[in-house]
């Protein structure tokens, strides 16, 4: 008899209230290891709140959240990170005054067993430096090694944010609107980058660009008024009349899967 591995991420009847206002209203979600899932929905649907609940910035009002079979609701963000979940943010969170190389080294330290210490010389940590060089090549910033994060282009800053997010080798990655503000050509390159760096990992991403969603996701979860109304493959979600009515609009059902349709309701 084989043991079924636990779900990478599971939400059971999760609610979040702020005062008398229900933002997340009984959400259930089950993501298998290695799946790439896009979370979509109109503005105000609760996508950012749901991300904050999963990553520990908010505690749910009720319900349960599991990471690789371990309950994490109520834990602090750093505790959840150390259990194997890492996230990026809509607004880039980088050390602006540090170089690309040093941003990555800071993100790597804890995962390799080092604690932050101003007395430790990073140049002597050969495993940290090797990992940082590997990451720079992955995110296509190896030629920008010594450039301060503040002096990178917007797309380069987003790439560095991805590098920082995956630096600790977390098996579950949350990306919050990773392509927002990018040109079409930048977005196309970034989709490929995300596919490469999340290979073998579980990905949950919030996106508004339907081209990114249909080009990246194995499954799509549709959040409307704090409830997931559909969770299925891109083709089935495209054909779902309830989704079309609530969010996508009938035009999406006829749009090519690789088309870049921006929907911001």
Keywords:
single chain, 265 residues, alpha/beta, six-stranded mixed beta sheet, four-stranded antiparallel beta sheet, 10 helices, 33% helix, 22% strand, globular, disordered C terminus
Question: Can you lay out the helices and strands and say which pair or pack?
Answer:
Blueprint: E1 9-18, E2 21-31, E3 36-40, H1 47-55, E4 62-67, E5 70-71, H2 77-82, E6 85-87, H3 100-108, H4 126-138, H5 154-166, E7 172-176, H6 184-197, E8 202-206, H7 210-216, E9 219-224, E10 227-232, H8 234-238, H9 241-248, H10 250-253
Helix pairs in contact: 3-4, 3-5, 5-6
Oligomeric state as shown: single chain
Helix content: 25-40%
Largest sheet: 6 strands, mixed
Please write the string of helix (H) and strand (E) elements: EEEHEEHEHHHEHEHEEHHH
Strand content: 15-25%
Measured distance between first and last alpha carbons: 48 Å
User: Taking Cα atoms only, what radius of gyration do you get, to the nearest Å?
Assistant: 19 Å
Outline, from the CA principal axes? globular
Tally of strands: 10
């Amino acid at each position: 008899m084989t043991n079924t591995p636990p779900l990478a991420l599971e939400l059971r009847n999760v609610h979040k209230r702020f005062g008398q206002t229900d933002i997340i209203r009984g959400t259930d979600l089950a993501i298998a290891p290695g799946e790439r899932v896009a979370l979509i929905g109109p503005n105000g649907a609760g996508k950012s709140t749901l991300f904050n609940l999963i990553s520990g910035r908010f505690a749910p009002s009720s319900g349960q959240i599991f990471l690789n079979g371990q309950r994490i609701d109520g834990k602090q963000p750093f505790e959840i990170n150390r259990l194997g979940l890492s996230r990026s943010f809509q607004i880039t969170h980088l050390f602006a005054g540090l170089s690309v190389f040093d941003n990555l080294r800071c993100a790597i330290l804890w995962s390799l067993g080092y604690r932050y210490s101003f007395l430790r010389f990073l140049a002597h940590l050969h495993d940290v430096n090797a990992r940082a060089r590997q990451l720079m090549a992955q995110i296509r910033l190896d030629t920008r090694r010594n450039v301060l994060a503040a002096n990178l282009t917007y797309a380069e800053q987003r790439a560095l944010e991805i590098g920082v997010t995956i630096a600790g080798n977390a098996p579950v990655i949350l990306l919050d609107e990773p392509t927002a503000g990018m040109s079409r050509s930048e977005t196309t390159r970034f989709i490929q980058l995300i596919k490469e760096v999340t290979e073998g990992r579980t990905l949950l991403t919030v996106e508004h660009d339907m081209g990114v969603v249909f080009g990246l996701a194995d499954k799509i979860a549709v959040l409307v008024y704090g409830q997931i109304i559909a969770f299925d493959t891109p083709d089935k979600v495209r054909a779902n009349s309830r989704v079309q009515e609530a969010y996508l609009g009938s035009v999406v059902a006829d749009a090519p899967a690789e088309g870049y349709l921006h929907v911001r309701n």
